[in-house]
Every structure is written in structure tokens, then in C-alpha cells.
Write a structure and sequence with these properties.
About 40% of the residues lie in helices and about 20% in strands. It is of the alpha+beta class. The protein has a single domain (about 10-120), classed as Alpha-Beta Plaits (2-Layer Sandwich). Strands 2-3-1-4 form a four-stranded antiparallel beta sheet. Strand 2 (about 45-55) and strand 3 form a beta hairpin. The longest helix has 20 residues, at about 70-90. The chain is globular and about 45 Å long. The chain starts with 10 loop residues before the first strand and ends in a 5-residue tail after the last helix.
Length: about 120
């Protein structure tokens, strides 16, 4: 089912690992994920306002500037990161718990809450 992804409206993205396993276990993993996040956000015309990488999930606050930009960004990021992760840890199979979750940010109070939530979470392992 296609996602609702209005241009210019901020979104809260959550991507969780399968079975709550570690998906970002080292500093190198964090750098790899953030590098691809930056690359694909530019290519897909998505502004990243805030992010936090936890050992078993990711939160992003972003705004797309093209239709379908968030989905394209997350798909490309996921493909690259899973390939890297599986190769690095000599594993196969899925890493993520299905599709990422997304929620439109439709109010200043919710936007401030998300910024606070993301900024107060730990970064890194």
C-alpha cells in the first residue's frame, strides 16, 4: 500500500531491527549508516532535521521535497546498509522489522516534542 508522503510536511520515521537484535553495534556501523543517510537524503531531496541511532532502531525527523522521497531514501539506505551489515558480520537474511514506520508531524507542539525526544536519546553504542 502506498504511503502518504506530502511534499513539505515533516515526518517522524522509525526503523526497528528484526527481533530487537543489534543492527548498529559499532562506531563503524554508525558512521556507515549516517554516511548513506546523508548521501541518499541529498539524492532523494529529503531534509534531515534530527536523528538518533540506537543499537536496535533509528528515529529520523525529516521533510521530503519530492513525492515519494522518503520511501526512496529509506529503500536505498536500507539496501546499502543491510548489504554492509550482513557482509561485516558474516550473516544473511533480513535485518529490519518489515517496512519503516512513518508519522506526519502536524503541529508545532508535536514537532517540539519530537526534537526533544530525539535529542535526549543516546547516540551510539
Amino acid at each position: 500500500m502506498p504511503r502518504i508522503c506530502p511534499i513539505g510536511i515533516a515526518q517522524h520515521i522509525i526503523q526497528r531491527s528484526n527481533n530487537r537484535q543489534t543492527c548498529l553495534g559499532s562506531e563503524q556501523d554508525f558512521f556507515a549508516y549516517v554516511g548513506w543517510l546523508k548521501e541518499f537524503s541529498v539524492k532523494c531531496k529529503v531534509d534531515i532535521h534530527a536523528w538518533v541511532l540506537m543499537t536496535n532502531h533509528v528515529h529520523l525527523l525529516c521533510t521530503p521535497h519530492e513525492a515519494g522521497g522518503v520511501s526512496r531514501m529509506m529503500q536505498a539506505l536500507g539496501r546499502h546498509y543491510v548489504r554492509y551489515f550482513n557482509h561485516s558480520y558474516k550473516r544473511t537474511g533480513t535485518l529490519w522489522e518489515g517496512r519503516f514506520k512513518s508519522c506526519l508531524v502536524e503541529g508545532e507542539a508535536y514537532l517540539i516534542h519530537l526534537y526533544r525526544y530525539i535529542e535526549l536519546n543516546q547516540l551510539g553504542p
